[in-house]
Write a structure and sequence with these properties.
This protein has 15 helices and 12 strands. With 362 residues, it is of the alpha/beta class. It has 2 domains: 135 residues, Aspartate Aminotransferase, domain 1 (Alpha-Beta Complex), CATH 3.90.1150; 204 residues, Aspartate Aminotransferase, domain 2. The longest helix is centred in the C-terminal third of the chain and has 23 residues. It is globular and about 55 Å long. The chain binds pyridoxal-5'-phosphate. The site of pyridoxal-5'-phosphate (PLP) has 13 residues, from α5. Pyridoxal-5'-phosphate (PLP) binds next to α5.
Length: 362
């Protein structure tokens, strides 16, 4: 294809981007993407297989997704009178909100370091993106946030609760102050992708705020492959976002798999509980090494800081352990790595590789 065609047709800001990098992890202990390391038990997998075999692949999905939404509302504690809107992962929900709010001059605001898709999606939709730095310990800088809200009147404010890539569970009173400060001039999206590991939620508080959106996903819960996110908010808001949603955005296999798994949430709850206790053990073991700082985490990963983290990252790669070199994501994450909490076997492999890599880094 001629270069001039690309230059004529594709937006300059898109051409200037590099594609979202996903490293090839084959042969690695994969601890970089916040996946749940557990699968469903064999008996459940066989039953799921039968369910999926019975799905009518020749038919379009029924776009109301009534049964799936009903099950999500019931199992995920959505308050009475509130409904959910489904997305092909919460990534799609973020872009639906961006598109629906993309009026001239509208802005999106989020603390940083945070989830990169908030800014990416805002820019794709033509919204201005404003970031507010977290404090050095990665807690919310309430005064700075309130000042930015007053100055920019953002249409969308994102708060990941807990935050990725830091794992921080922000103070609920700070979040409440943000929701009130934004008031009627914008929505505040509390992104609860890691709720199973935090066990704190703004979901029950939806009736208190007409500008609050609570967004969740089944990805970190153990179903990253099926791509299903959902959000709950005041019906008047959801109704508008639903107009932007592609009508068949949840495919029939995802729908059937999610409906099945939602009838067996006890298994996922057990897995999340195992990961929560593994998180404390892993955090203590890493802190015990002496030369590594471990930040408090309410998610299924730990953010850790050490001298010469690039070398430690390379040492881990050599030992076939893949974590995220968080220092490359944001300046305030210098010398930080982000590592998934996993099974006891994989956590032990990581610890051993970390110890060796720390020793040879100088
Ligand atoms: C992983 C993650 C998501 C994306 O979830 P998907 O449903 O897999 O698209 C959203 N928000 C945060 C903060 C995340 O870490």
């Amino acid at each position: 294809m001629s270069k001039s065609l690309v230059e004529r047709v594709i937006r300059a800001d898109v051409r200037a981007l590099s594609a979202y990098p996903v490293p090839d992890a084959s042969g690695f202990v994969k601890l970089d993407a916040m996946e749940n390391p557990y699968t469903l038990p064999q008996a459940l997998r066989e039953e799921l297989g039968q369910r999926l075999a019975a799905v009518a692949l020749n038919r379009y999905p029924v776009p109301s997704y009534t049964l799936l939404k009903e099950k999500l509302c019931r199992h995920m504690g959505v308050p009475a009178g509130f409904d959910v809107l489904l997305g092909n992962g919460s990534d799609e929900l973020i872009s639906i909100m961006s598109i629906a709010c993309a009026q001239a001059g509208a802005k999106v605001l989020a603390p940083e370091p945070g989830f990169v898709m908030y800014g990416v999606s805002a820019r794709f939709a033509g919204l201005d993106y404003v970031s507010v730095p977290l404090k050095a310990d990665f807690t919310l800088d309430r005064d700075a946030l309130l000042a930015a809200i007053a100055a920019h009147r953002p249409a969308i404010t994102y708060l990941a609760y807990p935050n990725n890539p830091t794992g921080t569970l922000y103070d609920a009173a700070d979040i409440e102050a943000v929701i009130r400060a934004v008031g009627d001039s914008g929505i505040v999206v509390v992104d609860e992708a890691y709720q199973p590991f935090a066990q704190e939620s703004f979901m029950p508080r939806l009736p208190e705020f007409n500008n609050l959106v609570v967004m969740r996903t089944v990805s970190k819960l153990g179903l990253a492959g099926i791509r299903l996110g959902y959000m709950a908010a005041d019906p008047a808001l959801l109704q508008e976002f639903d107009k932007v949603r592609p009508p068949y955005n949840i495919n029939v296999l995802t729908q059937a798999a999610a409906e099945f798994v939602l009838d067996h949430t006890a298994e996922l709850d057990r897995q999340a509980a195992a990961l929560r206790s593994a998180r404390s053990e892993l955090a203590a073991a890493i802190a015990g090494l002496g030369s590594v700082e471990v930040f408090p985490s309410a998610a299924n990963f730990l953010l850790i800081r050490m001298a010469n983290a690039d070398k430690v990252f390379a040492g881990l790669l050599q030992r076939k352990v893949l974590v995220k070199n968080a220092g490359k994501m944001h300046p305030s994450l210098r010398n930080c790595l982000r590592v998934n909490v996993s099974t006891s076997e994989e956590n032990a492999l990581f610890l051993k590789a970390l110890k060796e890599s720390l020793q040879e880094r100088i």
